[in-house]
C-alpha cells in the first residue's frame, strides 16, 4: 500500500460531498471509509493536522487501474467488468440506469483499448456463465462496433456512442434472446411479434431512463433496417451511420455465437458470408479486416499437425500468432507454446470446429505461459 498525505490531495475533497477515497491515520488505521462525507472545514483541518493519509491506489481512475494493471490480471478484470455490464443491462427499468450504464461501460472500453486482441478473444472464447445470453450478445456486438469505428476513423465520441447503441439495442428482449437461443423450434407467433417490436420498445426504455440523445435513440430504432429497404420494423432505407455500423456488428457476432440448434460458425466462414451478403461496403470491409480470417480465440490446425489457438493478430490476416496446444500427434502439451505462422511449415491450414477440440485453455493460462 502506497500512502500519501491527505493534505496533498485537498483539491479532490469537497465539503458536503462523499469522499472518493478512504482516509487513514498516521499509523494506517482506517479513519473514514470511502463515501463518508466531511461537512465542515474544521473537520477537514483536523484531519490535515493529525497527518491523515490516503492510499494512492484509490486516487486512480478505473481507466488508470486498467491501463497500469499487470497483464496477468486482465482476464480477471474482463470477467468482473463484463459481469457488471451484464447486471446493469438486466436492470434497465430501474432508477439510475443511465448513470449505471455509463459507469459500467467505461472500464470495458478501457480494456478494449488496452488490448484489442484480448477483447476479440472474449467474443470468440469467453462465454461467461454469469452473464445472460442476451446481455452477452449485446456486449459482443458493442465491442465489435467500437473496434470497427476505430478502424474507419470515427471520433472517440462517435465510437463510444456506437458502443452504447449496440449495448442497448436489445434492452427490451434480453430474456427472449436467451429463450430463442435455447429452443430448437422456430419462434412462435408471440415471439415473432416481440422480435418485430423490440426496437421501438428498447427506445421507450431508453427514453424512460433519461436518454435524450436523438442519434442514439434513432440508431436503436433503426438497427435492423437496411440500406436496400429490406429491414424492419419500417423498411426504411435512410438508416444512418450509427445504425448501419451496429447492424453489421450484430450480424457478424451472431454468426460467431452458438445456439441450442447450431454450433458457432467458424470465423473464416462468418467473414466470407459477410462479404458475400454485403459486397463492397466499407464498414463490412473494415469489420472483416479488424477481425481477420483467424481472429484471436479461434482454434486452428497447422501444416505441421499441431492444434493451436490464435492469440494475436499478425502482419497479415492469414499469419496470426498462435499458441500450440498439442504436438503434431495430438498429444496435449504441458504448457501452450507460442508460434509464428508466417513460416510455411507452420502455416494455418484450417479452422478446427468445437467437435475437433480435445484440449481447452483459458486466457489466464495463456497469459501465465507468456504466449499472449
What does the model show?
This protein is 47% helix and 10% strand. It is an alpha+beta fold and 372 residues long. The chain folds into three domains: 3-59, no CATH class; 63-291, Orthogonal Bundle (Hypothetical protein af1432); 299-368, no CATH class. It has a five-stranded antiparallel β-sheet with strand order 8-7-6-5-9. Strands 1-4 form a two-stranded antiparallel sheet. It has a two-stranded antiparallel ribbon with strand order 2-3. A hairpin with a 5-residue loop joins strand 7 and strand 8. Helix 8 (156-168) crosses helix 11. The longest helix has 20 residues, at 189-208. It is globular, with a radius of gyration of 24 Å.
Summarize the helices and strands and which ones pair or pack:
Blueprint: E1 3-5, E2 23-24, E3 30-32, H1 41-49, E4 53-55, H2 56-59, H3 62-68, H4 74-89, H5 97-114, H6 116-125, H7 133-151, H8 156-168, H9 174-182, H10 189-208, H11 214-221, H12 241-255, H13 267-277, H14 282-291, E5 299-302, E6 307-312, E7 321-326, E8 332-339, E9 348-351, H15 363-368
Antiparallel strand pairs: 1-4, 2-3, 5-6, 5-9, 6-7, 7-8
Helix pairs in contact: 3-5, 4-5, 5-6, 6-7, 7-8, 7-12, 7-14, 8-11, 8-12, 10-11, 11-12, 12-13, 13-14
What labels describe this entry?
single chain; 372 residues; alpha+beta; Hypothetical protein af1432; 3 domains; five-stranded antiparallel beta sheet; two-stranded antiparallel ribbon; 9 strands
Amino acid at each position: 500500500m502506497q500512502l500519501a498525505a491527505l493534505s496533498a490531495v485537498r483539491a479532490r475533497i469537497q465539503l458536503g460531498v462523499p469522499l472518493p477515497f478512504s482516509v487513514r491515520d498516521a499509523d494506517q488505521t482506517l479513519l473514514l471509509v470511502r463515501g463518508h462525507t466531511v461537512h465542515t472545514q474544521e473537520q477537514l483541518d483536523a484531519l490535515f493536522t493529525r497527518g491523515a493519509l490516503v492510499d494512492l491506489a484509490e486516487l486512480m481512475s478505473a481507466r488508470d487501474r486498467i491501463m497500469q494493471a499487470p497483464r496477468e490480471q486482465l482476464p480477471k478484470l474482463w470477467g468482473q467488468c463484463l459481469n457488471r455490464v451484464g447486471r446493469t443491462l438486466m436492470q434497465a427499468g430501474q432508477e439510475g440506469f443511465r448513470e449505471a450504464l455509463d459507469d459500467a461501460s467505461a472500464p470495458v472500453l478501457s480494456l478494449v483499448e488496452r488490448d484489442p486482441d484480448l477483447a476479440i478473444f472474449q467474443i470468440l472464447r469467453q462465454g461467461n456463465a454469469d452473464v445472460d445470453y442476451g446481455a452477452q450478445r449485446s456486449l459482443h456486438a458493442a465491442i465489435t462496433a467500437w473496434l470497427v469505428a476505430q478502424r474507419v476513423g470515427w471520433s472517440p465520441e462517435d465510437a463510444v456512442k456506437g458502443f452504447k447503441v449496440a449495448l442497448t439495442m436489445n434492452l427490451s428482449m434480453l430474456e427472449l434472446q436467451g429463450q430463442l437461443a435455447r429452443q430448437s423450434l422456430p419462434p412462435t407467433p408471440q415471439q415473432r411479434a416481440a422480435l418485430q417490436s423490440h426496437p421501438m420498445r428498447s427506445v421507450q426504455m431508453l427514453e424512460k431512463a433519461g436518454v435524450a440523445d436523438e442519434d442514439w435513440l434513432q440508431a436503436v430504432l433503426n438497427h435492423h433496417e437496411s440500406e436496400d429497404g429490406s429491414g424492419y420494423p419500417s423498411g426504411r432505407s435512410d438508416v444512418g451511420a450509427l445504425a448501419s455500423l451496429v447492424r453489421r456488428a450484430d450480424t457478424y457476432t451472431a454468426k460467431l455465437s452458438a445456439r441450442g440448434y447450431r454450433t458457432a460458425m467458424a470465423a473464416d466462414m462468418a467473414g466470407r458470408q459477410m462479404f458475400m451478403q454485403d459486397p463492397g461496403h466499407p464498414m463490412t470491409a473494415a469489420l472483416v479486416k479488424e477481425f481477420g480470417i483467424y481472429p484471436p480465440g479461434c482454434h486452428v490446425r497447422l501444416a505441421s499437425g499441431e492444434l493451436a489457438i490464435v492469440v494475436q493478430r499478425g502482419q497479415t490476416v492469414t499469419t496470426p500468432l498462435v499458441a500450440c496446444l498439442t504436438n503434431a500427434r495430438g498429444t496435449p502439451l504441458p504448457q501452450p507454446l507460442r508460434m509464428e505462422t508466417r513460416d510455411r511449415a507452420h502455416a494455418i491450414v484450417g479452422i478446427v470446429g468445437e467437435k475437433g477440440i480435445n484440449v481447452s485453455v483459458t486466457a489466464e493460462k495463456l497469459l501465465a505461459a507468456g504466449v499472449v
